[in-house]
Specification:
By secondary structure, the protein is mainly alpha-helical. 61% of the residues lie in helices and 0% in strands. It contains five helices and no strands. The chain has helices spanning 5-31, 39-127, 135-145, 172-177, 200-209. α1 (5-31) runs antiparallel to α2. It is rod-shaped, with a radius of gyration of 68 Å.
């Protein structure tokens, strides 16, 4: 890889050796310029140039390898990033599915429990007999529905603090007048007895026979007697 410290040090060492050998070669050429053209001079120059070509080739190969490794490293990093992103996305989707499944299961359990509770309540209401209505419940129902809304078989309870005496056979007025003398807080019971109407003239005749009505004045009655003296002369 390009950032590998070992390869970077090798490249720097190769560059340093090349620079040192090049400087030594130039110094040797300056020192032995009087031997230019000799066989020994030409052979050394040829050997240095061959070495220089090899170093240049090694440098080019190293750069090529480093570029390839850099591209491979970039591709690897990109693939790793894609893999991590895909893995995280898959984990998120799996977690979402698990949460949805858990919520659906909890809702199903809650609905089943509620249905079971309702069935138990219905069965309990069916099995248990109806409890008798207490005086308190009867009073509350009477107050909420009104006196006209109660149609039960039981009599209305006496309100708290009501000190009015009942009007029945124990009352002397009831024995004489019956329901006609009932006080205002007593509601007379409805009766289905037929009422026979009586003509007014028949009622008046019956009252006259029993001396319970005065006879009407006749229009032919004489004037009352005058007890005074004669009128004064004019």
């Amino acid at each position: 890889m390009m950032n590998d410290p070992t390869k970077k040090a090798s490249e720097e060492e190769l560059e340093k050796q090349y620079a040192d050998y090049r400087a030594q070669f130039e110094h040797w050429k300056e020192t032995n310029k009087g031997s230019v053209g000799t066989e020994a001079y030409n052979q050394y120059v040829s050997q240095f140039e061959q070495w220089e070509k090899e170093v240049t080739a090694r440098k080019a190969q190293t750069r090529k390898v480093m570029d390839i490794e850099a591209e491979a490293a970039a591709a690897y990093a990109q693939s790793q990033e894609a893999y991590v992103s895909h893995h995280l996305k898959a984990m998120e989707q799996a977690e979402m599915h698990q949460r949805a499944a858990a919520a659906a299961a909890a809702a199903a359990v809650a609905a089943q429990q509620q249905q079971h509770m309702m069935q138990s309540m219905m069965m309990r209401q069916t099995a248990e007999p109806a409890a008798p209505i207490s005086e308190r419940d009867l009073f509350l129902r009477t107050m909420m529905e009104g006196s006209g809304g109660y149609h039960g078989d039981q009599p209305l309870p006496q309100l708290w603090g009501n000190s009015r005496a009942p009007y029945d056979g124990r009352d002397p007025l009831y024995a004489k007048w019956g329901e006609r003398a009932a006080p205002t807080h007593i509601k007379p019971e409805a009766t289905n007895k037929p009422v026979n109407p009586v003509a007014c003239w028949a009622l008046l005749d019956a009252l006259r026979e029993k001396k319970m009505v005065l006879a009407p004045h006749s229009s032919n009655c004489p004037p009352p007697p005058f007890h005074g003296g004669p009128p004064p002369p004019l």
